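Supplementary material to the annual report.
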Amino acid sequence: IVLWNSMIAGYVLSEQCVKAVELFHQMQWEGMKPDKYSLGSILGACICPEYLNYGKQVHTHTIKSGVDSILSVNNALVTMYARCGSIDNAKLVLEEMAERNVVSWTALIGGYVLHKHDEEALKVFCQMQRTGMKPNDITFASVLRACGNLAALENGKQVLAQIFKIGVDTNVCVCNALVRMYAQCGSIGDARKVFRNASERDLGTWNAMISGCAQHGHGKEGLYLFEKMLSVGVKPD
RNA sequence: CUUCAAUUCGUGCU
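Predicted assembly:
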């Protein structure tokens, strides 16, 4: 079973979903019963709208297999529905979960952001905090994206206060999201400040700052930064 | 020993 699960996970990871599903069927044909790992993995192959119906079948399968109370399986279900654009179902699964963790909430928030329901994303973020669940760097990255999309600078600043409180302000993903959020809000100066003070800069940091400049009429600065990026050995994509 | 969430352009019938 571990071998089957590893193979399925490998295909999902390399985005060969059809192969993953084939293996999932083949293992059952050969008498194996999919467990929480197999089901969790195969849900990861159903994360686009075309596969929503298949994802629903897998959902039924998790119930029949009795793994529907397992946290990681439910998290995978939330993700599946959220990425397929069936966010109401994602929310329903989350609401009915007996146990939730930061992944559960972040998956739902990410779904709202992905489908441009940014106000709703912020609402869910507040709801999450009301339950006492502590957000992490990944949660903040999504929430900041929502703030950027809404050009909601005030919300963004409130979120920043939380980021400091939780102590993820030096996280590179959080910094990248902050740069983008400020740029989207038209606060290029704040974006620059975050960029300058970043303790670590990856390709994403440079991209966020350069596109921020490009979109706000700072073309020269963008080009300058691009050269600078090359000179410190970061390869453009 | 194998599963679950995230950030940085665009994805535009000019």
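The mean pLDDT of chain A is 95.
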